[in-house]
Amino acid sequence: MKTYSLEELTDKHIGVRGTPKREAFENELRIDLLGQAIKQARQERKLTQEELGELVGVKKAQISKIENSMTDARFTTILKVFNALGAKINFNIELNQQQFAY
Fold first, then answer.
1. Which of 5, 11, 56, 73 has the fewest CB atoms within 10 Å, counting from its CB?
2. What is the pLDDT of residue 62?
């Protein structure tokens, strides 16, 4: 029985890196991971969604949607959430084959 790597299976069923379908898949995965990170940080700080929403200036429903990747939240809202959670934020941006880290 042959075994396949996750990369091989993703290439076969989603598409190879650089294709629109693969890019959309990886973007959705990043958004999901971001939501999970926010939820975990909130729970570690023993905050409810409502309490975090009050700190950020949004309703509980918006925090729920962010945590469950059900919305395309504004970038400024995400930054406010991480700021309220006391998180350190780093960015890695690739533009025209050049890497930028912030």
1. 5
2. 94
Considering 39-48, 69-78, 84-93, the range whose residues carry the highest mean pLDDT is 39-48
Mean pLDDT on 43-66: 95
* HEC profile of the chain: CCCCCHHHHHHHHCCCCCCHHHHHHHHHHHHHHHHHHHHHHHHHCCCCHHHHHHHHCCCHHHHHHHHCCCCCCCHHHHHHHHHHCCCCCCCEEEECCEEEEC
Q: Count the domains in the chain.
A: 1
In a domain, 83, yes or no: yes
* CATH number of the domain where residue 37 is located: 1.10.260.40
